[in-house]
Amino acid sequence: MKNTAVLLIDCPDRKGLVARVSGLLYEWGANILHADQHRDQDLGLFFMRVEWELEPEDAAGSSGFDLSGFQHAFASLAAELSMRWTLSDTRHKPRAAIFCSQYQHCVADLLDRWRAGELHCEIPLVISNHADAAELARFYGVQFEHIPVTSATRNQAEALQLQWLERRGIELVVLARYMQILSSAFVSRYPAAIINVHHSFLPAFHGARPYHAAHARGVKLIGATSHYVTEKLDEGPIIEQDVTRISHRDQVENLVARGRDLERIVLSRAVRWHLDRRILCYGNKTVIFD
Amino acid sequence: MKNTAVLLIDCPDRKGLVARVSGLLYEWGANILHADQHRDQDLGLFFMRVEWELEPEDAAGSSGFDLSGFQHAFASLAAELSMRWTLSDTRHKPRAAIFCSQYQHCVADLLDRWRAGELHCEIPLVISNHADAAELARFYGVQFEHIPVTSATRNQAEALQLQWLERRGIELVVLARYMQILSSAFVSRYPAAIINVHHSFLPAFHGARPYHAAHARGVKLIGATSHYVTEKLDEGPIIEQDVTRISHRDQVENLVARGRDLERIVLSRAVRWHLDRRILCYGNKTVIFD
Amino acid sequence: MKNTAVLLIDCPDRKGLVARVSGLLYEWGANILHADQHRDQDLGLFFMRVEWELEPEDAAGSSGFDLSGFQHAFASLAAELSMRWTLSDTRHKPRAAIFCSQYQHCVADLLDRWRAGELHCEIPLVISNHADAAELARFYGVQFEHIPVTSATRNQAEALQLQWLERRGIELVVLARYMQILSSAFVSRYPAAIINVHHSFLPAFHGARPYHAAHARGVKLIGATSHYVTEKLDEGPIIEQDVTRISHRDQVENLVARGRDLERIVLSRAVRWHLDRRILCYGNKTVIFD
Amino acid sequence: MKNTAVLLIDCPDRKGLVARVSGLLYEWGANILHADQHRDQDLGLFFMRVEWELEPEDAAGSSGFDLSGFQHAFASLAAELSMRWTLSDTRHKPRAAIFCSQYQHCVADLLDRWRAGELHCEIPLVISNHADAAELARFYGVQFEHIPVTSATRNQAEALQLQWLERRGIELVVLARYMQILSSAFVSRYPAAIINVHHSFLPAFHGARPYHAAHARGVKLIGATSHYVTEKLDEGPIIEQDVTRISHRDQVENLVARGRDLERIVLSRAVRWHLDRRILCYGNKTVIFD
User: Fewer CB atoms near the end CB (10 Å): N or C, chain D?
Assistant: First the structure.
């Protein structure tokens, strides 16, 4: 069971940022577990992630870290230094929903990792435009909503989806090979909180049928990409990518099969890093604090 | 010292192709070392590479394989079966020229591998639009021609280049980060015999300054691609690709440095496979017989 | 639905082997889909895999390939040329059993791939010394046998396991992180038909707790290995290996988590290749016809 | 041209370490470029690397960072907190010697990278027990000493080597496939300052002829490892490792050829990281601050 606080910061770079932040944490008695900084020298930006303990493991008589007191104090510092920041208490598990289509390898993989304790979240909801994953969701004890989508019914379908997301208090939407394009209105409701997997090494082969395009071009490696969804299709900040070697012997159906392994891995990594507050978005890129 | 024959075949697929070819080789007494076939089922095409010994190692009194006799016999078979084919005697070393710019890591790598015996060819000629590689070429005992190129002088420069290629009997041109675009007229003189390295994972980031583009897009892997040059820039048949993992910590200059390792490897593999007659082009793709 | 025959051959190398085999297939009218050969020049051995169609897809009036007739004819040729060989009709799906422990990621992965059609087999049986996987097996409609094992009861447990394997007609046993050592007597019942996954890059870190050993040694990559089980622990013929990069930031529990992805991939590849008759064992090594 | 200071620290973990170090740097006006920390929670150890500017780029009227003043102040803090530490001025280029044998691919690669500016050091000396690399050293303008070694003359040879190392003020010794075992006496003179490349994925296949051993075992990947040399052969702290996929088609000579690419890469990375003060040794492991 996690029992830490995580502070994510980005701000204009200047002298003394690490000293100011770590000084304040020291003052409040934080026992830092991990700290990592990054400077983008071209853009003059500073990024930081700090994680510290909230309660000592052998806490007899100890009062623990005063998180709300610290939050108040830090807000002043952050304002002074023009910081954007989020402070998370990892004892709270984020609530995630999975969207899928008839392709079930990614949703099955995420649910299996969730059960194995790899993903630090609640998963109260699976939504699909196909009925296929109903049984799988039931096996993992997760509510399944079958919401068909056609071009004519997209708006109503999205309204229904959003209703369920709200009712279940969803904070993260994972598109596990969902295969439908979400409207700008939908996307704007979950900024940097919708993760998609695209079955190519972006920016190569964006759009539909990337394995067919890869086969036609005769590439020697195929890839998969997980990214945050923005209004521009396949152009959101990339979180993770991986590739695997293929040869002239691989027909399209082989690419599809081999790609499934890539998709599972890049999507599950992205979800885990998001849940562990390891990702900072800036511009159209990500910093991954590993 | 190599001492084999290599037969490369492509033709419309039909029953009995392996039997006919291997039967003829058996008839002529060939001792086959490697044989590999591939069928593209979508296109109905058949590809084959066979390599066999020309002279036995302990050849006392032995007369060796009758290559010209076999060639004559095979020509009839090939005509009957509508085969495109090439028959190579590996005792003949192909003659390669290297084109380079001020960036010398690829030309240095190729010359070092050549000296180490990895590349089965002669390299009588290095041509560059910069003077920098002169000393390097001299160290390896290779003629160096400094032929500056501007947009105004491209035609004369290419004429001079072609003159040298002809005089030196060049059969393969390797563009080792040459950074100049060759004219269609030049390219058409060396069909499937000009190998280029592009410093990205094609088709992503074609054109100029791919490392800058990769950095701007925020990809998590960078790549390099070796390919045959055709009239369409960066769109020729891909021979080899490789990638390496990067992170937000890598600025453009790091991408450039790490990319050099990729470029060396994908270019040298392409050259070696070409020299070993392991590559068959069809459409805009390659079969690599490994 | 598969509908092909696969012939796997190994024998002492000599001239004309490809010609003889492909000639016979041609004579019997085989439409070859894939053919691959390999020579181990050091050992003077020849290996071959050929796959051809049994019934044409648009079979109106066609009688199909005469497999038993061919088998009879080939047996003579094989005897003459001292071949070891197996001829498989892929319309028959091999029957596989999965053995697992409390660690369920590999068994869950195999069952999911099986359902998705990636594994060409029947899976009628899961056996475990823990009860944990019962629900999972039930979800996939597979019989689950909970057979506890202690050092005192190993013999009886194995007797019971073998009984179930026989009753269900099992031809392949997959040890999906089973964590128990099988007796020589058990192993000898399934020669080259028990596949294990070891959670290290063999031969490094054989034996127990390889992730702990890898962490202690400070390696920069961890790996996983799938192999056929022989009487010598972790020393059977290697089928597949893969690795992933780690750093000083990874504690043992991270290695365990990241290793799970490797284990799933190397084990499932091994099982698929075995089922597709792509593996030939010789000495303590494998030829993988890909 | 580099113009920074690098501080490497390791000490028992306790609260406030980052705050104390970054606070002192802030007090002295340091403009931090990179900072990275790591905690080994099992061992209760803390590791830190900080790099900051020494002179502003547009230094009109600016006096720069007072490095010796800071060093004095930091020494007190370090004593109080039981820190082991090194403070480096990157305007000083370390002096490295390369030892090689008849195999020249690694020494050629290092010298080429050095010329290209990838390695921030001086290389005044190449020592070999073979004469082969003389010409190569001359090409790069580096002194070459041919010091033959036999088991009978090892002691005298090492005495002569040490003499040259001292005369040339060598701080780092790179064994670029040197193939000779150094005595404990020699090794103890350069603690954590001799880098070797071993042509296997350690700890697999330590000792002689690892490619032969890998071929005999039938592994599916081969590797290379760079590490600091300690008194125990092939057991020093690992700096970097990499692997490449092989198949049954690769004979030993192919493994050797493909391994050369791995060796070049893992050795050159190790040397670069060492020169950039990115490596901290503890116990028998390394922290690589990337």
Answer: N
Q: Work out the average pLDDT over D60-71.
A: 82
Nearest residue on chain C to A108, alpha-carbon basis: C112
Size of interface A-D (CB pairs under 8 A): 52
Minimum CA–CA partner of C136 in chain A: A139
State residue C60's pLDDT score.
56
Separation in Å, CA A264 to CA C90, C240, D87: 29, 20, 44
Contact criterion met (CB < 8 Å) for D40 and C248: yes
Instruction: Map out the domains of chain C as residue ranges.
Output: 4-89, 95-288
* Residue of B10, B109, B234, B276 with catalytic role: B234
Q: Are D285 and C242 an interchain contact pair (Cβ–Cβ within 8 Å)?
A: no
Contacts of B29 (CB under 8 A, 6+ apart): B65, C15
Given the residues C10, C109, C234, C276, the one annotated as active site:
C234
Catalytic-labelled residue, pool D13, D109, D112, D234: D234
Amino acid at B240: E
Are B218 and A285 in contact (CB < 8 Å)?
Answer: yes
Contact D209, D232 (CB under 8 A): no
Question: From D118, which residue of chain B is nearest by alpha-carbon distance?
Answer: B257
What dotted CATH number matches A95-288? 3.40.50.170
Pairs of residues, one from chain B and one from chain D, whose beta carbons lie less than 8 Å apart: 24
CATH architecture of residue range(s) D4-89: 2-Layer Sandwich (3.30)
Structure confidence at residue B150 (pLDDT):
93
Contact: A257, C118; criterion CB under 8 Å: yes
Counting as contact any 3 or more CB pairs under 8 A, the partners of C are A, B, D
- Quick check: is C234 catalytic? yes
Q: pLDDT at position A47, please?
A: 95
For residue A284, pLDDT beyond 70: yes
* Placement of tokens 């630090």 in the chain: A120
> Do C46 and C37 contact (CB within 8 A), yes or no?
yes
| Residues in A touching D15 (Cβ below 8 Å) | 26, 29-32
State the average pLDDT over residues D88-93.
Answer: 95
Chain A residues in contact with chain C using a Cβ-Cβ cutoff of 8 Å: 104-105, 108-109, 112, 116, 118, 135, 139, 247, 249, 257, 260-261, 265, 290
Section A19-37 average pLDDT: 92
Q: What is the pLDDT of residues C67-105, one digit of tens each?
A: 999 999 999 999 999 999 999 999 999 999 999 999 999
Low-confidence ranges of chain B (pLDDT < 70): 1, 56-63
Contact C264, C274 (CB under 8 A): no
Residue whose tokens read 């990275």: D36
pLDDT of residue C35: 87
ipTM value for the complex: 0.92
Mind listing the pLDDT tens digit for each residue in B207-250?
A: 889 999 999 999 999 999 999 999 988 899 999 999 999 999 89
Q: Give D-chain residues touching B105 at CB under 8 angstroms.
A: 112, 116
Residues of A in contact with B237 (CB under 8 A): 218
Task: Kindly report the pTM of this predicted structure.
Answer: 0.94
DSSP string across C31-78: -EEEEEEEEETTTTEEEEEEEEESS-SS-TT-----HHHHHHHHHHHH
Q: Sheet harboring D45-53: ordered strands across?
A: A84-89, A4-12, A45-53, A32-40, D32-40, D45-53, D4-12, D84-89
Give the C-alpha separation, A33 to D39, whole Å.
7
